[in-house]
Amino acid sequence: MSQLVGYMVDSRVRWTEYLPWVLALLVYFFLPEYLSLGARVLTYILFALSLDLIIGYAGIITLGHASFFGLGAYITGILAAKLGVTDPLLQLLASALGAGLLGLITGAVILKMKGLTQLMMTLAISALCLEVANKATFVTGGADGLSGMEIAPILGMFKFDLFGKTAYLYCLVLLFGAWGIIRRLIYSPFGVSLMGIRENSARMHAIGAPVYKKLMMVYTLSALIAGLAGALLAQTNQFVGLNVLGFEPSGELLVMLILGGVGRLYGAFVGPVVFLLAQDYLAKQFPEYWYFGIGLLLVFVVLFARGGVLGIMDKLLVKSRTRLAGSQPS
């Protein structure tokens, strides 16, 4: 517990935490041909942050996080294509609130379960959402997807362009805001209590902590952020397909977190970048077998880098510091 308290106290922003934002701006200015892919990467980083909040910090196991992501995408799509609500910020707000409400309702049931039962329940809820979207063709477009979306310029000034410049900066600003909120949360007493619940929920119960209430709060917040990411995907693609509610996005997101490092905050930044860049490269080189390459990459990480890419970097830093300390004269 003392380690957790120390973690809360040491909440200063380190210089290394500015690196992702510097790199993102460098991509904008020096790699304009990758801005469309970059906007997708930023969207999935936001999605991964929402999942890491409940898996990495609260220890809530789920395979159905795509239900919130997909709901956010469909709310934006329906507002834009069916109801004539074209303001992107209003779409974001509605998507976030809708996904948060679904998180609140489903969390009330899911969080009373443990282990495999909890895992299967999250998967079942995702499957139910997928089936509803598939059958409600008059609203969602069913298997054909939802197209014909009209997205107005952001704040009436910044129109989504074909080169992805507006979409990239838009996603970057929203990601930065969400990162600031999540970082502040995990370095707060609330965040420390979540890690305590993850490590030993029985002991947290024994000291009088409202475990269920805290889990409900973080699960709802996670769903809200996932809905925000789904809305971003719908706005930047101007299309919503059934795949956003399937098992595949949830599974891929978990792979991204494992690649980056679960419960590390910045693992949610590294994992989607590694996964999506590897996917883009392998799909071009081996269109039929690119998933095989992703599988090999995941096996390598699980066997030799339990902490993901950030775990490898930590080990290299420790070794370099040990060598430097050993080379200094006594």
Structure write-up:
The protein is mainly α. The chain has one domain. Helix content is 72%, strand content 0%. It has 15 helices and no strands. α3 (35-55) crosses α12 and α12 (247-260) packs parallel to α15. The chain is globular and about 65 Å long. The model is unreliable at 5-9 (pLDDT under 50).
Distance between the termini: 36 Å
Secondary structure tally, helices: 15
Total strand segments: 0
Largest sheet: none
Oligomeric state of the chains in view: single chain
Low-confidence stretches: 5-9
Which whole number gives the mean pLDDT? 88
What would you report as the Rg, rounded to the nearest angstrom?
20 Å
Class by alpha and beta content? mainly alpha
Residue share in β-strands: under 5%
The figure for the number of domains is 1
Overall body shape = globular
Helix content: over 70%
H/E element sequence: HHHHHHHHHHHHHHH
Provide a compact summary of the structure.
This protein has 330 residues and is an all-alpha fold. The chain is built from 15 helices and no strands.
List the helices and strands and how they pair.
Elements: H1 2-9, H2 19-30, H3 35-55, H4 66-81, H5 88-110, H6 115-135, H7 137-140, H8 165-186, H9 189-199, H10 201-206, H11 211-237, H12 247-260, H13 267-285, H14 290-304, H15 308-327
Helix pairs in contact: 1-9, 3-8, 3-11, 3-12, 3-13, 4-5, 4-11, 5-11, 12-13, 12-15, 13-14
